[in-house]
Design goal:
The N and C termini lie far apart (41 Å). Helix 6 packs antiparallel against helix 12 (279-296). The protein has helices at 13-37, 42-63, 72-96, 102-109, 112-123, 131-153, 158-179, 188-210, 221-249, 251-255, 261-273, 279-296, 298-306. 76% of the residues lie in helices and 0% in strands. The longest helix has 29 residues, at 221-249. With 307 residues, the protein is mainly alpha-helical.
Length: 307
């Protein structure tokens, strides 16, 4: 991974608005994923998600006469990005959502910036540890321990393994956030189209190897809306937005989108699916959000300025 990257950039007001929009959209992805997991197997949903999203973006690429770079180095980098940013995390999250609700999955997913910071510290020169970031990491892991620990204490329950799967997805996202910095200056629509196309090619043999996509139940209107929302809005559009923000503010800052995703996912899950959170879920979320606040550092800076 490259180490000659630009120095940290503080997001502007426009960047924060884009981060908030992306957080709301990705919060909806947990709702849509939970709806689809009630009837369909996870790998099939992942394939449909990335395939429909790729088709959507290819239509836009062709309509706008964009040129896709064919250099081997870019193609291989896009393939790796697709695996790290789509294939692994999408699959793990949906596997987890077979057992846990959209809100809880989003809370566990909030560990993404913590892992991104740890990975970025190792592989980049511009996103290093500081005292507040180390404290943030500690709070983040305490939050995860609170979320998953109760289930493990009762035995290796399905819920514990499901939360562990989502946690695994956040590690993959962390690597993706750092890997994606190499695309700075590239057209985000082209990169998004490339990674989703690569993800579709990777997922295609997996659905026939591990699942039987031709035997799945025919979708009703709710599932069609959920699938199209997941693929077109929460994937095609969201990843164009993701790469734009990543190019502007860097891996750690863009991963702070997960600071807001749990709020969006919890509210949507409560409103649409009647989900609830336990006390340990709420405490875990507070610890993780505290950790994210420390990693971000803005609240601490504002407090110092007031004094």
């Amino acid at each position: 991974m490259t180490k000659n990257l630009n120095t940290n950039i503080q997001p502007s007001a426009k960047d924060w608005l884009l981060i908030a929009l992306l957080a709301f959209i990705w919060g909806g992805s947990f709702l849509f994923g939970r709806i689809l997991m009630i009837e369909w197997p996870p790998f099939t949903v992942v394939f449909l998600r990335v395939f429909i999203a790729a088709l959507t973006l290819w239509v836009f690429v062709l309509m706008t006469a964009r040129k896709f770079p064919m250099e081997r180095s870019i193609l291989s980098a896009v393939l790796i990005m697709g695996i790290l940013n789509n294939v692994i995390p999408f699959s793990l999250i949906l596997i987890g959502q077979q057992e846990i609700g959209s809100g809880l999955a989003a809370v566990v997913n909030a560990m993404t910036p913590i892992w991104t910071l740890i990975i970025a510290n190792q592989f980049t020169s511009d996103e290093k540890f500081s005292t507040n970031k180390i404290l943030g990491i500690c709070f983040g892991f305490m939050g995860v321990a609170t979320l998953i620990g109760a289930d493990f204490m009762q035995g290796l329950t399905a819920s514990a393994w499901a939360q562990g799967a989502v946690l695994g997805a956040t590690i993959s996202y962390g690597f993706a956030g750092v890997w994606g910095k190499r695309f700075k200056g590239q057209d985000p629509i082209i990169i998004s189209t490339g990674q989703l196309t690569a993800s579709s090619l990777v997922m295609l043999p997996l659905i026939f190897l591990y699942e039987d996509p031709f035997s799945i139940q025919a979708p009703d209107l709710e599932m069609i809306v959920a699938l199209l929302g997941l693929a077109i809005v929460c994937t095609a559009f969201a990843y164009v937005l993701f790469f734009k923000i990543l190019s502007n503010v860097g891996a750690t800052n863009v991963s702070l989108v997960t600071f807001l995703v749990p709020v969006s996912a919890i509210l949507l899950g409560i409103f649409w699916l009647g989900e609830t959170l336990t006390l340990s879920n709420i405490i875990g979320m507070i610890l993780i959000i505290t950790g994210l606040s420390l990693v971000d550092g803005r609240i601490l800076k504002m407090t110092r300025l007031r004094h």
